[in-house]
Amino acid sequence: MVEAWYMDESQEDQRAPHRQRPNRAVSLEQLRRLGVVYRRLDADNYETDPCLKEIRRAENYSWMDIVTIHKDKLPNYEEKIKTFYEEHLHLDDEIRYILEGSGYFDVRDKDDKWIRISMEKGDMITLPAGIYHRFTLDENNYVKAMRLFVGEPVWTAYNRPADDFPARKQYMKFLAEGEH
User: Fold this and answer.
1) Considering the entire predicted model, what is its pTM?
2) DSSP-assigned letter for residue 28
3) What range defines the domain where residue 120 resides?
C-alpha cells in the first residue's frame, strides 16, 4: 500500500525519505483532495491485466511506453535525474505505473508544503494537470515505470513559476472548490 508524508526541510540527498520527526502521515483521502489518484495493480501481469486494460479504456489512455531510470539504462542519466527533481507542472495529467523498483513523487499541498509519496512495484498514480510536483529515485536507484497518456504524449515540463497557464488556474480553482 502506498505511503505518503509531509517532508522535512533538509537539503540532504533527495533520495532519502525526508520524513518529519515526528512523522506526519498523509492519507489517500488527503491526496484525493489534491486531485492525486492512486491505484494498486498487479505489476507481475501488467501485459494481460484486465484491470489495467479497463483503466486505459475508461480514462482513454491510448498511448503507453515503458521507461527504466537507472544509470546504466537511461541516456543522460545525471541530467535527467536533476530535471525530474526540478519543481514543475504539466498541462496534462501525469500517469505513472511502477513495474519494478521504487521512487518518490513529491507534490505540493494547498498550503504549498511538500508531500512525499513513496511508490513501489504495483503502484499507479495520476497527478492532475497543473499540480506542482517532482520525481526522484529513492536509495535503491532504480525504477521501471509505464507512462500512460491520452492521445499523443507531450512531455513538456514547465518549471515553477508557471502560474499563468490555464491548467494551473484550473487546478487552483479545483483546490479552492474543495475547501467548501
Assistant:
1) 0.97
2) H
3) 3-172
